[in-house]
Design brief:
Blueprint lengths: L7 H5 L2 H9 L3 E6 L3 E6 L2 H9 L4 E2 L10 H4 L19 H16 L7 H13 L7 E2 H6 L1 H11 L3 H15 L6 H26 L5 H7 L9 H32 L3 H6 L2 H15 L8 E3 L3 E3 L2 E3 L4 E3 L2 H5 L33 H18 L4 E2 L21 E3 L4
Parallel strand pairs: 2-8
Antiparallel strand pairs: 1-2, 3-5, 4-10, 5-8, 6-7, 9-10
Length: 404
């Protein structure tokens, strides 16, 4: 059977297709644009096993009988090639080294300490919105807020934030096949800007923020190289943004779907934290991991795989697996426990888990504290998920914040 993960019916209600996939086994074959033939996990157990099976599966195809990403991406302009030093594309000791250095820098930032500043950023965006006119809350709120938070985290001064966000926006906004070409000019300026920031830290000590912490991070005499620093900072914008955009917008829509849920959660921080975990499970903004490659001929979940075969952990399948989750097709804001895989699993689990959680909690809280009667500005069936590979998010969320 053909499984189309961009089908509007699947994105609206994934349960029926996921159930059909599970009847075919814990992994199934599929064809995904830009990936080609891949295997997909269909259950929570298979996804967890796959994401921890680092001896059998690699992120870098160069460790699985193929060409490394550095060789595959030969066509990229020279200024972009340092981004291939991204820790998301590394395995084993190389990944562990990068992750330990970055974890050290992240550990210096108590994410909870950023909460007041994130609240101020959210309130600032809401101040700019005319509540008496319909507003697209993705464009006006859910998309710019995470970009502003990343700038705050990195220590980018307020005077530079607007242009930094402008440079990165072609990648962080909804894309098509020409997105990379459109993004090159902004990325060139962004990379040049960050190189100057790294040099300033080495020369003067720099400003407080994650850029300074990454430049100075050291473990047993080891530090991040210039290219590793560059790839890490750009990765934070790209990988650390899209998940939060869709978590926030889906969470807002889910609150309105559930009636008075938004104001109730906004006035109960404890309940809000629990509900955000359920939004992450139920909607699963990042539906799948990057492909893993079989390091050698092997068998996984009863299916023989050849060296180099691609397999993907289908996170939305795990999060809607009835063997793991009671009534997975129901959105239950009070669900506890909630051991979802929305942020991944294993050594490549999302670096910014705590930050994304706090951003979503604050964004939803501030909106419904100010506008408890917010409603959809169009019919609910007109608000549909975008058809981007591997993502489940709303391109637009038209709301009337202060209905007549």
């Amino acid at each position: 059977m053909t499984f189309d993960l961009t089908d509007p019916d699947f994105l609206r209600a994934p349960g029926p297709m996921l159930a059909q996939m599970r009847t075919e086994g814990p992994i199934v074959r599929a064809r995904i644009p830009f990936m080609g033939e891949v295997y997909l996990t269909t259950t929570d157990e298979a996804a967890r096993r796959l994401l921890k099976a680092t001896d059998s599966f690699a992120r870098d195809p160069g460790h699985a009988g193929g060409r490394s990403y550095q060789k595959i991406m030969w066509w990229m302009p020279p200024f972009m090639r340092p981004l291939m030093h991204n820790m998301l594309l590394h395995d084993g000791a190389a990944h562990k080294r990068l992750r330990s250095l970055v974890d050290q820098a992240f550990a210096r930032h108590a994410m909870l300490d950023l909460r007041p500043e994130i609240m101020a950023l959210a309130d600032g965006l809401l101040d700019q919105i005319d509540p008496d006119r319909p507003q697209d809350m993705v464009a006006a709120y859910a998309r710019p807020l995470p970009l502003q938070v990343i700038c705050l985290l990195l220590g980018i001064p307020e005077s530079d934030r607007a242009r930094v966000q402008r440079w990165i926006s072609p990648i962080s906004a909804p894309v098509n096949g020409w997105a990379m070409l459109r993004a090159f000019p902004g990325l060139y300026r962004l990379i040049r800007y960050f190189r100057a920031e790294f040099a300033d830290v080495r020369r003067t000590g720099g400003r407080p923020g994650l850029i300074r912490d990454l430049v100075l991070a050291e473990q047993d005499g080891d530090r991040l190289s210039e290219d590793e620093l560059l790839s890490m900072v750009v990765m934070l914008f790209i990988a650390g943004h899209e998940t939060t955009v869709h978590l926030v917008s889906n969470g807002i829509a889910g609150c309105i779907d559930a009636g008075n849920l938004g104001p109730e959660l906004a006035n109960s921080p404890g309940r809000m934290a629990i509900a955000v975990e359920e939004f992450m499970r139920f909607y699963t903004p990042v539906m799948m991991t990057k492909p893993l490659f079989a390091r050698h001929d092997t068998e996984f979940e009863g299916t023989p795989l050849r060296t180099g075969d691609k397999i993907v952990a289908l996170l939305i399948g795990a999060n809607h697996d009835p063997a793991r989750v009671e009534a997975p097709s129901e959105m239950r804001p009070e669900r506890r426990p909630n051991p979802h895989l929305g942020f991944g699993h294993g050594p490549h689990v999302c670096l910014g888990i705590q930050l994304a959680r706090i951003e979503a909690q604050v964004a939803i809280e501030r909106l419904f504290l100010r506008y408890p009667n917010a409603q959809f500005a169009v019919r609910r069936d007109e608000i549909v998920h975008g058809r981007r590979i591997g993502l489940r998010g709303l391109p637009r969320l038209p709301l009337r914040l202060r209905p007549a």
